[in-house]
Amino acid sequence: MVPKIIFGTDGWRGRIAENYTFDSVRRCTQGFASYLQKRIPKASWIVVGYDKRFLSESFALAASEVLCGNGFRVYLTNAPTPTPVISFSAVNLKTSGAVNITASHNPATDNGYKVRDENGGAIAPEGLKEIEGLIPDNTDKIKYKASVDAENKKTLVRFDPVPDYIEHIKNLIDIEPIKQAGLTILIDAMWGNGAGWFPKFLNGGKTIIKEIHNSRNPIFPEMKRPEPIPPNINVGLKTTVDEKADVLIINDGDADRVGLGDENGNFINQLQVYALLAYYLLEVRGERGPIVKTLSTTSMLNKLGKMYDVPVYETGVGFKYVAPKMLETNAMIGGEESGGFAFHGNVPERDGILAGLYLLDMMVKLNKKPSELLDLLFSKVGPHYYDRIDKPFIGNRQKKEEKILASKPNVIGGLKVTGFNNLDGYKYNLEDGGWLLLRFSGTEPIMRVYCETTKKELIPAILQYGLDIAGL
Asked: Residue 440 has what pLDDT?
């Protein structure tokens, strides 16, 4: 049976050699090509890039051959390239979009397929549904041009995206103060595409850059998956202490997410990082503009929005919702619970490299280490604590959803329920400004139970309640 290709929170992902095969990649690309042909001239250019997973460069070449067979011209990256660099290149080269072969933070067994529009951002849900509907059920209708022929005719061009991206970022942030700050910075590249990028920006001054997990190893040793949260980052946190580093910056497998560890080897979670980045833009840089957040991220942003008189917009989970909302509102920053953040002046795409540089600039500008930055943030908005449990999803989804909807709690973890939101999952707002969210993953067969609260000791009870009402 031919596997159905469904786009989740951020693209399509599958198990290599099971449902993620060369034929399925070609079918997916044919659907994307048909979608583009309805909107743009056939002669348009498309950027194609890839990560360091098993066979990613070969899958990228297969996608390029289908695009060329459909009359498009392709800029193919000459090496594994971070997702934000691919998105920037789509805009910089004035193309009509991009294809990115990556499974981001998924386990080593998986690979994936992301599509981007002419703005470098994720395509909105209705566009993804249209692409799904145009994917052929078999390979008979796939148009194809061999890469050798396409390269000879200059319709397939390999290019180096590095120089232009570096110049672009240097227009957004003054790198020199970070280079001369004398910091010791540890980078955990998680065996992914972020390796080598911080040295490119920051070498040559008093600051010392050290990297770990910075070669290609598609089985991702010393971590379950290249997702910048514990326990995957435990080696990085320990190494921070061993090396007496001032900070740990972590990028996921395709470098569109950022993680942060403090000087004491403690993880600063991604909700706290989002609030730090928003505070940095508002207070340190003096910027103003809307904030876009998914419903699974921090209520600290709402407090900052009130303090600085900027609007805060909440969307469903995934940049397929965030990116369009950022463009609609001309947002200053957009982000989600996974640790992906996008910024005004850049493309509406998560950028773990720029986010990392902004965090380093915040340290330098305020002369504070990461633990001190968190203390400063909490002095403004109060302490906020967060945790998440992922559970494999087994059984009838509809019955679980019916069970959740029937629960209608008035109190969770000792806190009154003040509101309910089923925009994307099931979110219960709590009296302290925190929340509990139950949501089926859009990229994996798991259910996520998340919570944020101002009362750290209540986290276990809130999460357990979520597990109970979901029958997990």
From this structure: 86
Residue 316 has pLDDT above 80, yes or no: yes
Write phi, then psi, for 430 (nearest 5 degrees): -110, 160
| Mean pLDDT of the region 207-224 | 98
- Measured over the CA atoms of residue 252, residue 447, residue 261 and residue 377, the dihedral's sign is positive
CA 303 to chain centre: 24
User: pTM for the full model?
Assistant: 0.94
Question: DSSP of 13-52, one letter per residue?
Answer: EEEBTTTB-HHHHHHHHHHHHHHHHTTS-TT-EEEEEE-S
Residue 16 CB coordination number (10 Å): 18
Kindly give, in sequence order, each residue whose CB lies less than 8 Å from that of residue 139, ignoring residues fewer than 6 positions away.
Answer: 23, 26, 27
The mean pLDDT of 264-276, rounded to a whole number, is 97
- Domains plus CATH for the chain? 12-161 (3.40.120.10), 173-381 (3.40.120.10), 385-469 (3.30.310.50)
Take residue 196 and report the two structure tokens written for it.
């080598």
Which pLDDT band holds residue 281 (cuts at 50, 70, 90)? very high
**What DSSP state is assigned to residue 280?**
I
